[in-house]
Write the C-alpha cells for this entry.
Amino acid sequence: MTRLIAACAFILTCGISLSGPASAGNDLLHASSFKADSRIAVQRKIPVLVLFSSPECHYCEQVKRVYLAPMHKDPAYRNKVIIREVTVGSSAPITGFDGSATTEGAFAADNKVFIVPTVKIFDTRGNQASEPIVGLLIADFYFGYLEAAIEEGTRKIRGS
C-alpha cells in the first residue's frame, strides 16, 4: 500500500510539473553573444547551430519542441554542437561572432534569413559551415538533415 501511495504521489507530482505553459522546457537559449559561443566552439572544435524563428511560427515551435530542445538537453550533444535561437525581426541586442554589437533581427538579415524556421550551422568565425535547412521539410527526415548539417560543420572546423 505504501508503494502504491508513493507511486501515485510521484505521478501527480510529474503531472503537475508537466501542466505548465506549452513552451515550458522547449525553450532554447537565445543568442546573446556569438563571440562567447565561438570561444567555446573553438575549445571543443564544434559548430554553432542557430535556429532562426518567429513567435508566430508554429513550424518553428515544432522544430524546437520535437528536435532541437531534446538535442540541446541531451548530454551526448554537449560536445557536438552549440545550439542557439535568434528571433527574426527582433530588436533584442546580441554580440556578433566578430564582437560587434547588433540585434537578433539585424543578424538574421545579415545572414539573409527571411523564411522561418531556418537552421544554419556556423563555424567558429561565424562563416556558414553547411547548407541551411529552410522550412520543416519532411518531418520524418528532419533529424537526419540536422545531423548531416552538424557533421558537415564539424568536418569543416576540424579540417577532416
